[in-house]
Design brief:
Amino acid/polyamine transporter I, binds phenylalanine, 74% helix
Length: 454
């Protein structure tokens, strides 16, 4: 091999590469599939406002904190906490992240697989001339089939593993640097199409005009969960990517840029979806089926619909792929650094175990739908517990660790690259991670699950 040193820890090669990879992780099904339906179910514009507030007040500080932990230690989440707090139980926060990674990858890759089915259906004409009932039937019977969704799942998982096998720089960085700009172009095309439909403005009103009576405790919890899920924070993905970032990178800038890109894509996805939904007189609160039932119906009715349908599901697939690789990387970094396995073996073990968990998640919408835990099928259990419980809890512990248990001087040192950068925001950041973020997360959380009421 051409001078590739396998003992040297891999790293990102450029600033742009860091942004592409981290924004690639953040931008995903969370923005295009989950955000619009959660927003639709929780009142539209008011939800957006709460969402933006949480991104700035909590999301960005948590992301900065993860980057600090990762780059300070150059380790996977478990190794990082072990290094920073030896012989203390903090490494359990990292371990919780690895467990969350397994859970997310399972249901997330299942949904990613559906995007392939819908690209396939678009090309083979399966989405033409269908009534909305037929489209709904098609979606439900597709998910209830055992083989098809499982097959797409396997294909998507293998694509993910193949990129991660290429390594951090040659696999993850190179592929995201190509996929992210492509995704952006497709999204803009979709927005233009949607905005030029007659009656589009009603969708914009829904998205941007807040109705404050819709802000309930549950809506705030959903917004918090959505911020964590969408920014990929609270489970060590950003710790892991941070561990591959070189010492001259300005971590605060990186956190702000990635968060802004992610938020912009979520808003643009809303702009691509709601005007079209309203233009064709469909209810915006149709839940998770918005993407797979409502939109195909919308595409059928618009000029050039099948082209846009293909583009849309391609957009989803690309966005999903740049996220699944980041989740798999957490598991692989943990296996290879903590358990001492080679990357190849780590990827193989992770992929094979994912086949079991992911196919169960996929089947839980079909033949296994009667298997219920806490009254939820496996898919919903994975989707809801990760976003609304594990990620916020992880985020709370991460900021509490940096705010209360780790020397402030070291945090500052990492954020200023050893004193080379100015960090005028530092005291504000410190105040946020010590007080605002932990208290806000705890309150929202307890209120959302009904332990306290405000
Ligand atoms: N942020 C990704 C999305 O919005 C999902 C994700 C969550 C990725 C957690 C990594 C970690 O689709």
């Amino acid at each position: 091999m051409s001078g590739f040193d396998f003992n040297k820890r891999d790293s990102f090669g450029s600033r742009l590469g860091v942004i592409a990879a981290a924004a690639g992780s953040a931008v995903g099904l969370g923005n295009i599939w989950r955000f619009p339906y959660v927003l639709g179910e929780n009142g539209g514009g008011a939800f957006l406002l709460v969402y933006l507030l949480i991104v700035f007040a909590i999301g960005i500080p948590v992301m900065m904190s993860e980057l600090v932990i990762g780059r300070r230690t150059n380790r996977n989440p478990v190794g990082a906490f072990k290094l920073l707090a030896p012989r203390k139980p903090w490494y359990l926060v990292g371990l919780m992240g690895v467990v969350s990674a397994f859970m997310i990858l399972a249901f997330y890759t299942a949904v990613s697989g559906w995007t392939l089915e819908y690209m396939y259906q678009t090309v083979t004409g399966g989405l033409v001339d269908k009534s909305s009932d037929e489209l709904a039937g098609m979606f439900h019977s597709f998910r209830a089939e055992s083989l098809r969704p499982a097959l797409w799942f396997v294909i998507f998982m293998l694509a993910t593993s193949a990129i991660v096998l290429g390594g951090v720089r040659r696999g993850i960085e190179t592929s995201t640097k190509i996929m992210m700009p492509l995704l952006f172009v497709i999204l803009i095309i979709m927005c233009v199409r949607s905005l030029t439909l007659p009656g589009a403005s009603e969708g914009l009103d829904f998205l941007f005009k807040p109705d404050f009576s819709k802000i309930t405790g549950k809506a705030i919890l959903m917004a918090l969960g959505q911020v964590f899920f969408s920014l990929s924070i609270g489970m060590g993905t950003i710790i892991t990517y941070g561990s591959y970032i070189q010492k001259d990178n300005n971590l605060a800038n990186t956190a702000v840029q990635v968060s802004l890109i992610d938020t912009m894509v979520a808003v643009l996805a809303g702009v691509a979806i709601f005007p079209a939904v309203f233009a064709f007189g469909i209810s915006p609160s149709s839940g998770e089926s918005l993407t797979f039932i409502v939109l195909p119906g919308v595409f059928q009715q618009m000029a050039g619909g099948m082209f846009f349908s293909f583009m849309f599901f391609l957009l989803l697939a690309l966005a999903a792929l740049t996220s699944t690789i980041s989740v798999l990387e957490v598991i692989v970094a943990y296996f290879s650094e903590q358990l001492g396995w080679s990357r190849k073996v780590s990827i193989m073990v992770a992929t094979l175990s994912m086949f079991i968990l992911g196919i169960s998640a996929s089947l839980s919408l079909g033949v296994m739908q009667n298997v219920k835990i806490f009254d939820l099928n496996i898919f919903d259990l994975l989707n809801n517990t990760t976003a609304n419980i594990l990620l916020p809890l992880g985020g709370l512990l991460i900021v509490a660790f940096l705010g209360w248990f780790f020397p402030s001087r070291d945090v500052r040192d990492e954020l200023t690259n050893g004193g080379l950068l100015k960090a005028r925001y530092y005291y504000l950041y410190r105040f946020v991670i010590k007080f605002i973020a932990p208290i806000a997360i705890a309150l929202v959380f307890l209120n959302g699950i009904g332990i306290i009421k405000f």
